[in-house]
What we know:
The complex is a heterodimer of chains A (112) and B (119).
Chain A: E1 3-5, E2 10-14, E3 19-21, E4 24-26, E5 32-38, E6 44-50, E7 56-58, E8 64-68, E9 73-78, E10 87-94, E11 101-102, E12 106-111
Parallel strand pairs in A: 2-12
Antiparallel strand pairs in A: 1-4, 3-9, 5-6, 5-10, 7-8, 8-9, 10-11, 10-12
Chain B: E1 4-7, E2 10-13, E3 19-25, E4 32-38, E5 44-51, E6 57-58, E7 67-73, E8 76-81, E9 90-97, E10 109-110, E11 114-118
Parallel strand pairs in B: 2-11
Antiparallel strand pairs in B: 1-3, 3-8, 4-5, 4-9, 5-6, 7-8, 9-10, 9-11
Amino acid sequence: AQSVAQPEDQVNVAEGNPLTVKCTYSVSGNPYLFWYVQYPNRGLQFLLKYITGDNLVKGSYGFEAEFNKSQTSFHLKKPSALVSDSALYFCAVREKGDKIIFGKGTRLHILP
Amino acid sequence: GAVVSQHPSRVICKSGTSVKIECRSLDFQATTMFWYRQFPKQSLMLMATSNEGSKATYEQGVEKDKFLINHASLTLSTLTVTSAHPEDSSFYICSGTSGRSTNRGDTQYFGPGTRLTVL
């Protein structure tokens, strides 16, 4: 069965520093991987996805993620964090069938 | 990106009443719509998947007679919580894709959510 894990409940980063939000997955075939961001009392906003091709995927708001098949990871990164990046981030995987599985979320705090 | 709206954004109702939540895709045709439930500080739990013109497919443990889903057009899906009880209080989020539910590479576009409080 497919699954996705976000090992960190919360990540704190100083403004201007690089940030990483971790995600690992488990699937039996080729994964389709997604990152979404959720602001307070709002729905999720799509950031980026990996389907095939280059392992480094660039998305919205300067975010990028690297697909690493050997480590079964899809960590979200940004070179320089902004206070406005503070939000709840969800990694998701979709393999077979029609259901997308979300991780439990990582709360990102960017400290001014 | 594509825009999905939900109405109402917040609703408070009495126990035993029914509440309807609308989900609309504003600038694309949502062939497939998903309904999720999110508890505080938790991830999204998929409740059901509906392809336009077909009956919704409910996830295990979700009562289809309690959570009625209608997807009669390519731009509108509704979730009706029937005979609501306090334990139904939650944040309900819909999403839509332009492809069929089996197109696993499709991006889901999410509505802003509806906070339901049942007194």
